[in-house]
Write a structure and sequence with these properties.
311 residues; alpha+beta; nine-stranded mixed β-sheet; two-stranded antiparallel ribbon; 11 strands; THUMP_dom
């Protein structure tokens, strides 16, 4: 396979540059799906990965069924030549992934922050729309309390009934307060991730995969350490291996060098509605797509779309 040319992390004004990982042989399914579902452009693939440009919309990106994981692309370039250079020089070449073009990193971080902000706003609006009664309870607390006191004074025989109503209202208020606290905590987490870069307090970790000649010279831990030090020097970020705000993914082999940011913590191939593990979800989707299955599998409280419906 020919070497992969350098590719910018962000696409034109019409969209951003992403890439998906896919099982061997499933790349054509991913290419067809991103074109049909995301109206993607500049679609190309190399073994195990599909690159494309599309509008950064999390709701649409989450619907991909044939891909394993989704990443926001920062860099794609030729592989490192480790045969004719020393190990020290190779470390310098790896650090140049950051120092040569810091603008592509900043653009990718900006897109990543916008995705988080938009997703947080949509989740907040959907939660409010789903619970209109609970949302309005807090506004009517004072009026209801006054009415209940007046009714108790006028008719003592209804005292027990009114007490029960008050208890129900209090329970509803407790639930509302808990939901508000959870929403505030979620907003704080997103805000922390969004604002962290501007404050220089962004925490990160590097996940590295290497194979071929690179793997014979460096371990994944050594490459992660080199890239991590370069990021700290260039942007002032802080390393956090356990609970970082940001994860940097790097894949180095004899064909290409790719750097990206995982869009979701959970892989796309993880289906929330599948309770019992069986055939790999991406393979099952590809088989259903080839078979052009039209029926829908329904379970208790679960609707599983077929490949035809998904497409």
């Amino acid at each position: 396979m020919a070497a992969v040319p350098r590719d910018a992390g962000s696409g034109p004004a019409a969209g951003a540059r992403f890439f998906c990982t896919a099982g061997r042989g499933l790349e054509p399914f991913v290419m067809r799906e991103v074109r049909a579902r995301l109206a993607a452009t500049q679609v190309e693939y190399i073994s195990g990965k599909v690159f494309f440009t599309t509008c950064p919309d999390l709701n649409r990106l989450k619907k991909l069924k044939s891909a394993e994981r989704l990443f926001l692309l920062i860099k794609k370039q030729f592989p490192f030549d480790v045969s004719s250079v020393s190990k020290g020089r190779m470390c310098n070449e790896m650090q140049r992934l950051i120092s040569d073009d810091p603008e592509s990193w900043l653009n990718a971080i900006s897109i990543w922050k916008n995705l988080l902000e938009l997703d947080a706003k949509k989740e907040k609006l959907s939660q409010r729309d789903a619970n209109p009664l609970k949302r309005n309870m807090g506004e009517n607390d004072i009026i209801i309390a006054k009415k209940s006191k007046t009714e108790i004074q006028e008719n003592r025989e209804c005292q027990l009934e009114k007490q029960m109503e008050e208890e129900i209202l209090e329970q509803g208020n407790v639930i509302t307060e808990r939901e508000e606290v959870q929403e505030e905590e979620s907003e704080k987490d997103v805000a922390k991730a969004v604002v962290a870069h501007n404050q220089g307090d962004l925490t990160f970790r590097v996940s590295c995969r290497c194979s071929g000649a690179v793997a014979k010279t460096f371990t994944a831990q050594e490459i992660g350490r080199v890239i991590g030090i370069a990021l700290m020097k260039q942007f002032g970020w802080k390393a956090d291996l356990r609970n970082p705000n940001l994860e940097i993914f790097i894949h180095l082999n004899d064909v290409y060098s790719v750097v990206g940011i995982p869009v979701f913590r959970v892989p796309l191939a993880s289906r929330a509605y599948i309770r019992t593990a069986g055939l790999r979800s991406t393979i099952a989707w590809a088989m259903a797509s080839l078979a052009e299955i039209k029926f829908v599998l329904r379970g208790p409280g679960v609707n599983v779309p077929t490949s035809r419906e998904v497409a």
